[in-house]
Amino acid sequence: MNRGKNRFIISFLALPVGLYALFVLYPYFSAFYFAFTRWSGLSANIQFNGINNFIKLFADEKFWNALKHNGVALVFLPPIIISIALFFAFLFTQGIKGARFFRITYFFPQVLSVVIVAVLWGFIYHPTIGILNSVIDLFNIEAMQSFPWLGDRRTVFPSVLAVVVWSSIGFYMVLMIAGMQTIPTDYYEAAVVDGANRWGMFWNITVPLIWDTIRTAIVFIAIGAMDLFSIVTVMTNGTGGPSRAADVVPVYLYSKAFSEGQFGYATAMGLVLLLLVLALSILSLRFTARESFEY
């Protein structure tokens, strides 16, 4: 009977596992081979190149420029997004009027495609017809009139990061709210009796009890900071901005693979990025580990 049950289970798992192995595992493991080759991506001629791709990569200034921008995003995005998301989550769990409406409104960008968000903000940043410059014109700031936010190397990347923050806050706000709503109200009632204010309750009760949720959010945002492919590609028309001032590793990788036909080199770059993301995830979990509270 057990043998028959096992055959029955295997018969259902064989097809999805086979498809997963063919379309996911096989490309992953193939990347480890192609990273050491010289290949155009279309030609049947694949030449083994040893570690030359990696030597070339570590001497590539454009790669380091792109990686620097990912590093900037990694430093700024997690604290900004989590701080704002925590603020709104705590605010909307205090019984204020219209809290449900604001939750839905702030979560709305998550319903939209990244491409739609990028195109929308592209119009907002437009130097002549954009809403942002129209608002600035009301204050008669001559230096900022018709300012090209996505066309100036000083502002293009901060402008992109601002869009990432705007579009991400709603999701992490809902994540924090879900964690906060599981905290028993008895803790807050006892704190009020002891004379605690709202800030004290937030810092000493709410944050410790939802710390596991915050850790998860940190890892998600950190991984996202090492990507940013879609938003940067659409908002800079795939160029990485003027002088590649908003370039990130995935965008540079894509241009090397599909524009210049250097699939071997691009695969080596992707392999390095994969290892960086894995190391980053492990370090994030390790350095944010703290005592867990059960309730």
Helix content: 55-70%
Supply the number of helical segments: 13
Give the distance, in angstroms, between the N- and C-terminal Cα atoms: 43 Å
Strand content: under 5%
Tell me the Rg in angstroms. Answer: 24 Å
Total beta strands: 2
Overall mean pLDDT stands at 88
Shape: globular
The main sheet orders its strands as 1-2
Order of helices and strands: HEEHHHHHHHHHHHH
Largest sheet: 2 strands, antiparallel
Derived structural class: mainly alpha
List unreliable stretches of 5+ residues: none
Could you characterize what this model shows?
By secondary structure, the chain is mostly helical. Helices cover 68% and strands 1% of the residues. It has a two-stranded antiparallel sheet with strand order 1-2. Helix 2 (52-58) crosses helix 13 (263-287), helix 3 (61-91) packs across helix 12 and helix 12 (249-259) packs antiparallel against helix 13 (263-287). The two termini are 43 Å apart. The relative contact order is 0.13.
Annotate the secondary structure layout.
Layout lengths: L1 H33 L2 E2 L8 E2 L3 H7 L2 H31 L7 H9 L6 H11 L6 H7 L18 H25 L4 H9 L4 H12 L1 H15 L3 H7 L13 H11 L3 H25 L8
